[in-house]
Amino acid sequence: MNTTLQTIRNVSGNPEYVLLPVEVYKNLKKNIDQMIVQCTLQEEYVDFKPSDFIKNKIALTRMKAKITQASLAEYLNVSQAYISKIENDEYEVTDKLFKKINEAIKKHFSKESLFSK
Questions:
Q1: What is the pLDDT averaged over residues 3-9?
Q2: Cα(92)–Cα(86) distance, rounded to whole angstroms?
Q3: Whose CA is closest to 75, among 94, 64, 62?
Q4: Most confident listed range (6-20, 47-61, 91-105)
Q5: 17-51 residues labelled b (16+ CB within 10 A) or e (exposed)
Q6: Out of 10, 20, 65, 69, which could bridge 16 as a Cys pair, Cβ 3.0 to 4.6 Å?
Q7: pLDDT tier for residue 109 given thresholds of 50, 70 and 90
Q8: Which helix (H) or strand (E) holds 6?
Q9: Residue 4: what pLDDT?
């Protein structure tokens, strides 16, 4: 297959994305999946643990509950940007807000809780 790939550059002019034909993507994904299986069988594969990298308890709990910032924001009637700033420690989280977010996650999205270990 003779394919020309299209790149999308960022504002600095550096390549940031590559658009692939679906068939090329499927072949690459198949190869990657096979490599992961091989690594897993050889015990070289280390499972990604979000808690090793994400220190914000609200962000971690939201991700464990498999909900998006947008879904949580919609439920809380705030913007997704506000949730992002909370998760990036750009806003101080009051006890009231913490409890409101915890209840939203716990009652309306999953059994995860900010108080879970």
A1: 83
A2: 7
A3: 62
A4: 6-20
A5: eeeeeeeeeeeeeeeeeeeeeeeeeeeeeeeeeee
A6: 10
A7: low
A8: strand 6-9
A9: 75
Contact 101, 77 (CB under 8 A): no
Q: Is the pTM of this model over 0.90?
A: no
Polymer length of the chain: 117
Q: What is the pLDDT of residues 40-87, one digit of tens each?
A: 777 766 777 888 888 888 898 888 888 899 989 988 899 999 999 999
**DSSP sequence for 39-75:** HHHTT------GGGT---HHHHHHHHTT--HHHHHHH
Tell the residue number behind the tokens 């999308």, with chain if given: 8
CA angle 62, 70, 115 (to 5 degrees): 20
